[in-house]
Amino acid sequence: xxxxxxxxxxxxxxxxxxxxxxxxxxxxxxxxxxxxxxxxxxxxxxxxxxxxxxxxxxxxxxxxxxxxxxxxxxxxxxxxxxxxxxxxxxxxxxxxxxxxxxxxxxxxxxxxxxxxxxxxxxxxxxxxxxxxxxxxxxxxxxxxxxxxxxxxxxxxxxxxxxxxxxxxxxxxxxxxxxxxxxxxxxxxxxxxxxxxxxxxxxxxxxxxxxxxxxxxxxxxxxxxxxxxxxxxxxxxxxxxxxxxxxxxxxxxxxxxxxxxxxxxxxxxxxxxxxxxxxxxxxxxxxxxxxxxxxxxxxxxxxxxxxxx
Length: 308
Prior knowledge:
Layout: E1 5-8, H1 13-24, E2 28-33, H2 44-47, E3 55-58, E4 61-64, H3 66-76, H4 90-113, H5 120-131, H6 137-142, H7 144-162, H8 176-191, H9 195-199, H10 203-215, E5 219-222, H11 225-234, E6 256-261, E7 270-277, E8 281-288, E9 292-299, E10 303-307
Parallel strand pairs: 1-2, 2-5, 4-9
Antiparallel strand pairs: 1-3, 3-4, 6-7, 6-10, 7-8, 8-9
Helix pairs in contact: 1-3, 1-8, 4-5, 4-7, 4-8, 7-10
């Protein structure tokens, strides 16, 4: 079974980034909807407890974090490329800004501007996840003028690039930087009541937003979570066993490790044995009753690996 199974929910901004990636590569994929907040009883057996959204599954190989998902899509489906115009390598550096500082600014904007209206359980979950154990949404609300000033400058950089006449971030054809930028514009427009008014000052960016939206999401079709679990149980891991002799952490096959995001979001560690360790990604074998034995993939950048 080699079809792409995507575990997500429609309102997830990071999932929208990957959905645009599916559209750029015109891929067919199966859509499994998951809860917005834990518990996620039909997802966590696949991920060893990893709770963030989204997750991609191909057979018994499970890909966590959009960075890892998009890299695997490029590896498996090289054309149309995510790197038009020779953007190889550079686009991953761009992702550390869009998924790092800029994403944090926009999270603070959305949480702060909606602080009085968010459901309590959702506010508690996202505040802890993105802003740390001492989060204070009222503080973000009071700091909104500063936060908006940061986003205005950063969106201005993108608008400036597009104002040169480029149809997409790298030229005439869409690539990964378009997905990396679009999901944030999509998030601001849809989750901030002043978003459409704010965006109207960026003429080139709004015209580009329309072009990217028209790419669509490829060809999704619905799948039940129980079917996805059965596919994981019935498939064999396809990832090769391999480690890197130059690995700075000296990871070896079969070594028991724990993996978690390299930020204090309260995430549980995922435990397993090293199956693959490369420069950009690591994959560990994990077994549980519901999913069987799966191979769970994570990026190296942004995640911490430690002996179990």
